[in-house]
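Saturday, quiet lab. Running sequence design on the structure tokens for the scaffold JK sent over.
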């Protein structure tokens, strides 16, 4: 798996910002640094930049923080009725 960050589409970036603003619970799938896929329900809280890469900061239902590099997100969809 490539370690070099690839910027994401601006529209997708804006969508993540809207999810944060509206406090939308998301069903997310993403790849970790080893390429292993993860699936979880997460509440996005912030977008941060570190060392030239952007990350979505999320909390799970146990208030544990997860930091996901934006270019490793496979899919994110709001959970209806949450």
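Result came back. Writing it out in full:
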């Amino acid at each position: 798996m490539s370690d070099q960050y690839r910027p994401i589409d601006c529209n997708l970036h804006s969508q993540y910002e809207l999810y944060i603003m509206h406090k939308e619970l998301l069903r997310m799938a993403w790849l970790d640094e080893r390429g292993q896929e993860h699936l979880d329900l997460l509440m996005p809280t912030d977008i941060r930049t570190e060392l030239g890469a952007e990350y979505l900061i999320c909390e799970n239902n146990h208030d544990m923080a997860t930091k996901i590099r934006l270019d490793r997100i496979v899919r994110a969809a709001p959970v209806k009725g949450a």
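Notes for JK: The chain has a mean pLDDT of 94. Residues 38 and 80 are 20 Å apart (CA to CA). Ask whether to fix the surface positions before the next round.
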